[in-house]
Design brief:
By secondary structure, the protein is α/β, with parallel strands linked by helices. The protein contains 10 helices and 14 strands. It starts with a strand and ends in an 11-residue tail after the last helix.
Length: 285
């Protein structure tokens, strides 16, 4: 049995996912937008050094534009732009990297019928999306499809992106909270916070309606930590119902899986499982 490691690089944390057969084990470590390539490399190598068995393969999911297993650009983690993990970690096992939403899609469609169109939207620090038709993931010209958080939305006299209006980082900025201080009880007692969350949820619903109207999916899977904000998903669903084409929405099954916060990490682990074994020069430690 292969010993596979999935790594979910997020705006506020890195989540390691050790997969052994059907079993997953998760470990989280904090990150922030100032994290550098050297710091991240050291964190990954430190974690691997403590594993009971070195991984046979590693799958990495990261926010931003990924091409040829390189993170070309990340607005969530700008200091990681240009990161090529296989070279940076001097890997003795194969490493592959994909965009985080595409990793979530891999996990979400693992047991789906082959003939459906599925979209996965992950809303955390930023908002990402991935789409598959049958067993084929929509990549785009450079593999950069799915940047839902970058769609422009006109509000008043200003054009903003969906990320700026509805993402977790945008909400924290508006609310004046640090992520580690955030909890549902605190928010539930703050009417202004609930109003901001509802407003962000409505904007997220506009993004979802745009997606449903464009691609007419059979299945829409939602994941990410921002869905935990009280009232956010309810406002999003109301907005989606108001602005999506009724016929398209009628045939779209909307799912919020209980493991939605771990979809990306599971997808990264599944990516590792799919890697063909090979012997590589170098050392991982």
């Amino acid at each position: 049995m292969k010993n596979c490691l999935g790594i979910d690089i997020g705006g506020s944390k890195v989540r390691f996912c050790e997969q052994h057969g059907e079993q997953y084990h998760f470990s989280d470590f904090p990150l922030d937008s100032s994290t550098t390539i050297n710091v991240l490399n050291a964190l990954i190598l430190s974690f691997i050094s403590k594993m009971n068995t070195l991984p046979d393969s590693i799958g990495i999911a990261a926010p931003g534009l990924v091409e040829n297993d390189t993170l070309l650009y990340s607005d969530v983690l700008p200091n990681l732009s240009g990161w090529f993990p296989e070279e940076a970690l001097a890997a003795s096992c194969p490493i592959r990297m994909v965009n985080d939403a595409k990793a979530a899609l891999m996990a979400a469609v693992n047991d789906a019928p082959n003939n459906i169109t599925c979209a996965v939207v992950v809303v955390g620090t930023g908002i990402g999306c991935a789409i598959s038709t049958g067993q084929t993931i929509l990549e785009g010209a450079q593999g950069w499809s799915g940047e839902l958080g970058s769609i422009p939305i006109h509000v008043g006299e200003t054009v903003s992106t969906l990320d700026e209006l509805a993402s977790g980082s945008a909400l924290l900025k508006k609310l004046g909270y640090q992520l580690q201080d955030l909890n549902s009880d605190t928010l539930a007692k703050n009417p202004k916070a609930l109003e901001e969350i509802s407003s962000a949820g409505k904007m997220f619903g506009l993004g979802l309606a745009t997606l449903v109207n464009l691609i007419n999916p059979d299945r829409l899977v939602l994941g990410g930590g921002t869905l935990r904000f009280p009232g956010y998903i309810d406002a999003a669903k109301q907005s989606l119902a108001m602005h999506a084409l009724p016929k398209s929405l009628d045939v779209c099954q909307i799912e919020i899986p209980v493991d939605g916060q771990t979809l990306v990490a599971k997808g990264a682990a599944q990516l590792a499982v799919s890697i063909t074994p090979s012997i590589k020069a170098g050392t991982l430690l």
